[in-house]
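Hi support team,

I've been running sequence recovery on a batch of backbones for a student project. Most finish fine, but this one hangs at about 90% for roughly twenty minutes before it completes. I'm not sure whether the input is malformed or the queue is just slow. I've pasted the structure tokens below so you can try to reproduce it. Let me know if you need the job ID as well.

Thanks,
M.K.
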């Protein structure tokens, strides 16, 4: 996920993913890197189906700071 480096971007995206998967943040592996005004987040989440992945994408899309997701 790439987005604007403002507020608690990492925490907000992590919370959105955890909410979709109904897991604790400790079950999510997160790393990030900053470059200028952008922050790149890498998430490793325990998904069991394609529908969960699509649900995560929809949840991430609700954050206006998100520019790219893949």
């Amino acid at each position: 996920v790439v987005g604007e480096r403002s507020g608690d971007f990492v925490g907000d995206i992590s919370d959105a993913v955890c909410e979709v998967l109904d897991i604790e943040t400790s079950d999510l592996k997160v790393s990030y890197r900053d470059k200028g005004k952008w922050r790149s987040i890498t998430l490793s989440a325990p998904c069991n189906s394609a529908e969960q992945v699509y649900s995560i994408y929809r949840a991430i899309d609700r954050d206006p700071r998100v520019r790219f997701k893949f």
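--
Follow-up from support: It reproduced on our side and the slowdown came from queue contention, not your input. The chain is about 35% helix and 30% strand. No action needed from you.
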